[in-house]
Amino acid sequence: MTWHNYLFAPGVFFAALSRHPYFGISLLLWLGLTILFAGFQALRERLRGQINRRSSRSDWQDFAFCAFLGGLVLALLSFCAFCLLALLGASVRMEQVVSGIVFASFPLFLGLYLEDLRALHWRFDRPARVLFTLCAVGTGILLWTAFTPLAQGSGAKAFAGALPVFLAYGVLAIYICNSNPVTLRALYPWRMQEGDRVRVYYPAGKSDTEITQIVRGCDAALRCAEELMGVKPLPFKVGVFLFPDNETLHKRLQLKKERSKWCSGYAYGDAIVVPYNVWEVIRRTVAHEFGHVLMNLHVTHKLYGLLDEGLACYMGVYVGGGERNSSPPPTVSWRTLAHPTLFFEWRHVDRPEYTARQTYGYAASVATFLIARYGMDSYLKLCRKAVCAKEAQAGEQLAKAVQEVYCITVEAMERNWRDELCNPRYDLRTLF
Length: 432
Fold this sequence. Notes:
The chain is mainly α. The protein is 60% helix and 5% strand. It has a five-stranded mixed β-sheet with strand order 1-2-3-5-4. A hairpin with a 3-residue loop joins strand 1 (191-194) and strand 2 (198-202). The longest helix has 29 residues, at 20-48. It starts with a helix and ends in a 12-residue tail after the last helix.
């Protein structure tokens, strides 16, 4: 084969050249493609709002992460392919291998951009998977074509040399094609009814009367929650996604089923998900999840466990009219239960030290005591100051926050709280 033949196969021309300028071009292209992909991700979030997972990374961190990861992947794949070709007796240079991988990867990157179409609407899900599969196949063909001249025209050696890249891209294609879209809007063939403050997404075949009642109830609950927290109304309509049942909810969101059947709702930044039921059944869960949304957008999105769930439970009771009983909270200290791992232990083990009902009741009791005695503003300030980057320090951070906000030690505050449990004035013992 002569170099003229390389012009007929995209990427092969550059792969067959060992001149330094083309190697530099390939590296710049790879860096540009990875950063552009990060830019598409950030643009998608800005256009459509939060996706159904929390992320505290800023845009520049996303760019840096994608560039670093892309460079690392390229280096590893190139090194593996170069070693295999060398072992097979092919006379090849590293820059040829790098250039071949970069230019042959164009269809795969195009597929990654097309992958974002899945997040727009559920109708785009299947076509986008098909397109991505075709792009992955196209990349495989180009890889084999690009590596053939490097292996002196031997198709078998070319396939063996490109095998690490084939495997890596194949795993990526299988993972994407078996994953669900990243937005709640695209996870199910929804019907939608819009209210003053919310958009309710629900499965087909539901009663119009029931849906209207749910929409009005969600509007009222969100308005009441904002008034209780003393925050401004949200500048957008919160999405309320009502999955047909709990099993479908966990399957579509790819969540492990909670070990406690008591937990059935989730909040995702600017939206909540709840299994479908009549308003009287789901109103407490809806109010609880609205508490998380308001905490996330008005207070902090980095707080998990005791104080975060405490406010949400408070909303579930005082906004959603939650059920009450006389079960007292466990004797564990605030410092100890401030650790999210212990608070949510019931999610991961069959026999946790404290059940979901106990930890959530404990959190509701603490929140109600602090809000009733010191006010909502002080509680929200406490939530902001209790944020801790390292979980091991969560208890100490809570103690510092209590001291700073209320000018009292956490031990003294906890004693006051336990004394108040015997006082029916704040109805602490009857929350859960």
